[in-house]
Structure formats: structure tokens, C-alpha cells
Write a structure and sequence with these properties.
This protein is mainly alpha-helical. Helices cover 62% and strands 11% of the residues. It contains four helices and two strands, in the order αααββα. Helix 1 packs across helix 3, helix 1 crosses helix 4 and helix 2 crosses helix 3.
Length: 125
């Protein structure tokens, strides 16, 4: 599957950039996934997946093409546009920078907590 955290349902009309990034990455890896398969892979509802996909289609980052899944069913192939590939790269860079900042803050907090514990343990010996 993927390594990005699933985002919660949006409280506002605009979904989070991490949700868009997650969907763009999935579509790049699995352009033939149905909306149901995308929802399962992302760990979100089918409705949220439809909402996110519709937003990406509306922004021109993804285009949908019909294809035959079987003898009776038509499906869609979701293809990233050149603009979608650029946006995926931009969103990946932003996501990585945000996570690196969080990581640095956590490292600082861990060092501080270890020092605090060491001082408390030393005081109780």
C-alpha cells in the first residue's frame, strides 16, 4: 500500500494537501484502480474518495479515460496529467519539509524529556 498517513474527512470544502498527495501517488502507481479500491487503499470512505478524485479532475491534475474491465463492465483509467505530476512533486516536497520539521521538534523534545527523567532519577537515588 502506501506510507502516507490517511487524513480525516475534511471539515472545509478544501481537502488537505496530504490527502491529495496520497491519492496522486496511488493513481500514479495504480491508474486502473476503481474508486472503491482507492478508498480501501487510502482507508477512507468511498464518498471521500469520490470527493478527492473529483477535486483532482477539476484542477486538471488527473484525467479519466474509459476502458473495459471485463466483457460487461466499463471502468476508468485515472492518468496524471503533466500538471498533476508537477503538483505531486510539489506536494511531496512540502510534505517532506513539514515532516522533517516535525521530526526535528520531536528529537528536541525527546532529548529534553530524557534529561528531565535523568535529573529526576538522580534526585531520587
Amino acid at each position: 500500500m502506501n506510507t502516507l498517513p490517511s487524513s480525516n474527512a475534511p471539515n472545509s470544502p478544501e481537502a488537505s494537501p496530504s490527502a491529495h498527495l496520497e491519492l496522486l501517488r496511488l493513481l500514479e502507481q495504480h491508474p486502473d484502480y476503481s474508486q472503491r479500491q482507492l478508498a480501501i487503499a487510502m482507508g477512507v470512505s468511498l464518498g471521500k474518495t469520490h470527493y478527492l478524485l473529483k477535486a483532482l479532475l477539476g484542477k486538471g491534475w488527473v484525467k479519466a479515460q474509459n476502458f473495459k474491465r471485463s466483457d460487461q463492465k466499463l471502468g476508468y483509467l485515472y492518468v496524471l496529467t503533466p500538471q498533476g505530476v508537477r503538483q505531486r512533486l510539489h506536494l511531496t516536497q512540502s510534505f517532506l519539509a513539514r515532516k522533517e520539521t516535525e521530526y526535528d521538534m520531536l528529537k528536541t523534545q525527546i532529548v529534553s524529556l530524557r534529561e528531565e527523567l535523568a535529573a529526576q532519577t538522580k534526585g531520587h537515588s
